Amino acid sequence: MKLTLSWLRRHLDTEASLAAIADRLVTLGHEVEDVVDRTRDLAPFTVAYVVEAAPHPNADRLRVCKVDTGRGVVEVVCGAPNARTGMKGVFAPVGTTIPGTGITLKRSEIRGVASNGMLCSEREMGLGQDHDGIIDLPDDAPLGKPFAAFMGLDDPVLDLKITPDRADCFGVRGIARDLAASGLGRLKPYPIAAIPGLYQSPVTVRLGLHAAARDACPLFLGRHIRGLKNGPSPRWLKDKLIAVGLRPISALVDVTNWLTLDLNRPVHAFDAGKLTGDIQVRLARPGERLAALNGKTYDLDADMTGICDDSGVLGLGGIMGGQSTGCSEGTRAVFIEIALFDARRTAATARRLAIESDARQRFERGLDPAFAGAGMEEATRLVLELCGGEPSHVVVAGEAPPGLPALSLRPSRIAGLGGLAVPAGVARTRLEDLGCGVAVEQADRWIVTPATWRHDLLVEADVVEEVLRLGGFDAIPPASLPRAAALTRPVLTQRQNRARRAKRCLAARGALEVITWSFLPKAHALLFSGPHGAHPDLRLANPISAELDWMRPSGLPNLIAACGRNADRGIHDLALFEVGPAYADATIKGQTLVAAAIRRGLTGPRHWLEKPRAVDAMDAKADALAVLAACGVAGASLRVTQGGPDWYHPGRSGELRQGNVVLARFGELHPRVLAGLDVAGSVVGCEVILDAVPDLKDRGSRTRPALDASALQVVERDFAFVVDRAVTAEAIVKAARGADRALIADVAVFDVYQGKGLPDGKISIAIAVRLQPRAATLTDAEIEAVGTRIVAAVTKATGGTLRT
Amino acid sequence: MSEQPDVLQARLLVEVAAAASAAALEAIRVAALGRNGDVTRQMATLGKLPPDERKAAGQRFNTLKERVADAITAKAAALAGADLEAKLAAERLDVTLPARPEASGRIHPVSQVMDELTAIFAEMGFTVAEGPDIEDDFHNFTALNIPPEHPARQEHDTFYFPEGEDGSRKVLRTHTSPVQIRHMLTHKPPFRVIAPGRTYRSDSDMTHTPMFHQVEGLVVGSDIHMGHLKGCLRDFCEAFFEVRDLKMRFRPSYFPFTAPSAEVDIGCARDKGQIRIGAGEDWLEILGCGMVHPKVLANGGVDPDHWQGFAFGMGIDRIAMLKYGIPDLRAFFDADARWLGHYGFGAEDVPTLFGGLAR
User: Fold this and answer.
1) Domain boundaries, given as residue ranges, for chain B
2) If residue A86 lies in a helix (H) or strand (E), which one and from where to where?
3) Which class is B109-343 in CATH?
4) How far apart are the first and last CA of chain A?
5) Hey, is the C-beta of B160 within 8 angstroms of any chain A C-beta?
6) CA A773, CA A745: separation in Å to the nearest integer?
7) How far is the C-alpha of A718 from the C-alpha of A747, rounded, in Å?
8) Phi/psi zone of residue A179: left (φ > 0), alpha (ψ -120 to 50 degrees), beta?
9) B 107-126 residues with CB below 8 A of A?
10) What confidence tens digit (pLDDT) does each residue in A664-718 have?
């Protein structure tokens, strides 16, 4: 919403400076997006008189002008074809920076004649594109005075962001009222007198709306004005419209724009000579079209409110008029429309047709239903003043709906909700200054009747807001929240702590945390969706791009794609992780929190001591185990199973389970998947399903079990077993450990071998067993005995033999 | 003719002192104190002396033997030390060579700021609530006093899922406010919660991304008023931006789910594209807030006649950009290793109020 300072002052009696007004507007909730004050840029430009424009002695196209600047006569060389003796123009002395070009004028000599300044064109002034000639001012322009003041260009323009609830502030008067109610100035009276009709309107109006659509247009006022002459608007009107970015067209059109901007009362003027029969307001019929005033043609449907005559739809109610009945130079009679249209239907129609207009902006927020009659009188007055003519009686169809119902306000709520005690008298004055009615029933029970132009006072809190707003929220003293307890208590849930620990754990392991979109291309979703395909509920109906049309079923695909992008930038060795959602379906339970991590390339840069190695599935397994450990899951409680979902390498992947619950998956990614994501080379990764990790039980005590560190000598013995390749290391370790649970403290695999020296299909797995005696140092015989038991247990469990 | 004991001692001590290696020293030891050594042999002759001389001579020889043995031990240690020094001197390492590389991981600025938010709001008694990204119409709009035909729905640039069989369609939550409703419906007041998380709007340009992060705050009690709203947000902003007496401005605004509603600006200075929080005369909008609308309380199953409070919503990415001077929002989601290395945080940089939020 744009307005100028002088426009505001038509409604507001105030001495306040522009800065003070702008500050107050912000305090009132009207964000000032821009203040344009051209006074400074245009200050050097003054009105000058061309005493004589003589031909240049050395150039056919140039003239040498003797220019009276009001402070003396100077000689200026001018190339404009319209420079002539006796004209008034805009003079810029030497030293002036020309706004349109940014060039600073210097004293110069043009083809042997000195030039001491410049007569300016509109384009040079930054006021328009007209470059055909210099500005030709009227004879009454005051010599030597600032050009900007004479043209009304010294009027600063404010651009406000009006919140959608404040329909009333889409008119300059509404803004003036808000400022006045806040104590900045006084709202000037705006008396509107009824103008008697002189004849019956030859055009009548009928509301042809069926019962279900009656609210589409509850009220329509029309008035015929004949014998008028349309022409250009007077300067004051043109200046205001130009200042706020509108193009003056003709007096009739400009008046309708003026009323829209000034009083927030959209008006439409039909050229009465172009109407066919009477006006009817009805819903459009499918197939009907409107060639609108913006030059575009729209296909209408049966939800849209049409202003029609016998020829069809003339305009869309509350949005835009049509070309067929628009006013022109030749218009001799008009039919003026002042109506109320339903906000929702107006908004829906304009949205569907993608039409932005000043009328739409106002109707979809709501107009003052009580102002239709006065609006018609003001429109009539302006048309008669600018164009002459005589008015008919007003024709009326329908009736104005009431404003919002009265509300009960407990003044004690101002302090109770707002935290600031406002004296009752002040509160009441503020509400009344906004146009609300206040009736005091009891000291703490007022009845507040919202002004008819307010559509936002619906509950008591809205009224409290108005009282506080007019005094500024800055007046409310801040108060720290009272502490519920002396000390801060832990606030995170176990699930939240798991997420936090997983992030810190993976970062400590050298991975970079990334955040990627929750959506991805369907093709990527399919790669991670398993045999049943992507869940159809996870498709976005209106994706931001066709490439991001599906919710991600896993955290891995975006990480792998990011890996590819980094490789394109020359970063090939990389570890990335993301702790975020994966979606199995569109339900709440379908969203799970997953820590996903990938590694690609080498373990590090080349180094003089050690060669880096390629990352492998065991790195991914280590990441998964570390995250689980960080989340309180002991490695010993986990079972490792071979294989994983089909986005992993079938032979080099596994799952970590507690019971049958999969807590994590890890392994090399399937080459088919990498190809689908356009990533070269091998990538390993893991997914830890943080939502599957069980909460730790609160043991009620933080005491740790006593340390069991025996003073007796530990004995370590190595064994190597030759087993079938299908036998897992875990089976051997488990069997060995079971051979003597009291004595065996640890079993660790330290070597795996296959190949030369072993039969086909066989593998050798070597384990180190630590024996921790409890009672007395072990004798050779005891060590021998437990060794025998270990070999027997492993042989029994795996069919393997001791390698000798 | 055997040497006099004092001559013998003097000779042996000279020889020990002159020994150039451990082997030479051992040869001296054997020659002196070995079974056929000079000292051993002379001591064997003591028995032939008259008894009155035998005792004194024995003492003399014992002293001699001890002195020589001590000298040999000391010399052996000195020789060993010199050998070690010589060996170590030969073992020089060029310590300017690089140590073994260790990959340094990083925490994303959004995670870091979420931890900072948690640290601050926990101090004020808040817990952390969560809700799903895929929301229904009720929680994302209707319960927040945004009925189906409300213009605010259009302004939200909502991502929709296809219509279900009952004609309803789910949405990607456009803000974290639905978590307010979920929390109210499952807990009893009073409330102090924040709800950080992913939010989505169908908007993509220089300053907008289709996914971003918000943190919602909800405080409900029997007497929580707008002064508390201002105090709580002031306390937060001063702690988060680590600026004392931060200039703040509460501008009236409009949100369907709060009344009164306000937008909050903080003071800043803009200089050559850099923003400094807390200095200068400019203002920077950082959040929207207000007193929870009575209809929203009622929709959350909370009696608005007994309970009241405030709510706020803030862009996490935005405050991260402001605090840490990160220029481009889109880079947050691009997973560029160089960006993460530069703007990310170390795993050990856990923000606490006692240690300071950031360095």
Assistant:
1) 5-90, 109-343
2) none
3) alpha beta
4) 92
5) yes
6) 9
7) 10
8) alpha
9) 107-108, 110-111, 115, 118, 121-126
10) 999 999 999 999 999 988 999 999 999 999 998 888 888 888 998 889 999 999 9
